[in-house]
Design a protein that fits this description.
This protein is an alpha/beta fold. It has helices spanning 33-37, 44-66, 85-102, 111-117, 161-171, 178-186, 210-225, 232-257, 273-282, 296-299, 304-315; strands at 2-7, 12-19, 23-31, 75-81, 106-110, 129-134, 139-144, 151-155, 262-266, 290-292. A five-stranded mixed beta sheet has the order 3-2-1-4-5, with helices on both faces. It has a five-stranded mixed beta sheet with strand order 8-7-6-9-10, sandwiched between helices. Strand 4 (75-81), helix 3 and strand 5 form a beta-alpha-beta unit. The longest helix is centred in the last third of the chain and has 26 residues, at 232-257. Bound molecules: adenosine-5'-triphosphate, magnesium ion and fe (iii) ion. Adenosine-5'-triphosphate binds next to helix 4, helix 5 and helix 6.
Amino acid sequence: PRILAIETSCDETAAAIVEGGKTLLSNVVASQIEIHKRFGGVVPEVASRHHVENMTAVIEETMSSAHVTYEDLDAIAVTEGPGLVGALLVGVNTAKALAYAHQRPLLPVHHIAGHIHAADLIADIKYPAMALVVSGGHTSLIYMPERGEYEVIGETRDDAVGEAYDKVARTLKLPYPGGPEIDRLAANGEVTIDFPRAWLEADSYDFSFSGLKSSVLNYIHNANQRKEEVIQENVAASFQASVVDVLVERAQRAVSAYQAQQLIVTGGVAANHALREAMGKTFPNDGDVELVIPPLSLCTDNAAMIGAAAQVVWEKDVRAGYDLNGQPGLAIK
Ligand code: ATP
Ligand code: MG
Ligand code: FE
């Protein structure tokens, strides 16, 4: 099927058209980063309002750049959750209106399934597969015994990794979003500070980043108090080294315990250069495990990934009614 997908779970107003879950016909993302920058983070009410303002133009551009009309579409898909409720509602209500007006089935998509199925757009997922989802709100290891089955085997017990990046960046007085800023600084820094790594219990696949975050924040505050120079590049590189060590160790252990054929690394933080490099070294694609990391533009929020995941929803014969609602805390299943 040819699917129009809509994504508004956070601060990106996005639409895309995907065919058969694999072929991207068009992909439009209107980012609100510039708007939220001056607040130092996403302001939910402001995000919702801008989604309303941008939605129509984003969909029109998506349709015209794919050279399709509604007659050419088989379904309308939308992110149902998780995310900011007011933001989700804009996408959900738009999708409902389009599905009703054009009498097309409505496909509800889980945002994290979207991040995972971004992989379908660049590779054939081989099952059993393992996905490491690292984003602004999630740090999860998800085991997929087969297509359409998701089993969360580990997740963060406190901060998501992207959240830790953003908070550390804020303390370094870097602009929002902090992830790409830290990434850039770290490239010119050295690992000079031994920040902690939360290994947790030996058999756990969970994560914890709040201890690391506090430790970095304390380091900066102490240095400031003692009027010692804080070399931002080195703080960034040291913080990032700690994050990457833990993510690589967990992924490696999960892949081998579950005998996964593939490891998919996805979500906004998968845009991180150090993480991509470390994963590439650990899984060199010459062994049993194939590493799949979507390109940067498919790692951060977009609707192409929602269109790819919608294909799975279509195959499972799941359809939403006009009572579909935004679900801020929706679990993956
Ligand atoms: P979720 O997907 O959990 O609902 P979200 O949609 O807000 O959360 P994404 O858009 O997937 O999250 O990812 C945004 C996060 O990714 C932010 O925390 C941002 O700082 C981080 N990020 C983006 N690029 C990089 C990078 N190059 N290095 C590290 N972090 C990055
Ligand atoms: Mg975002
Ligand atoms: Fe996301």
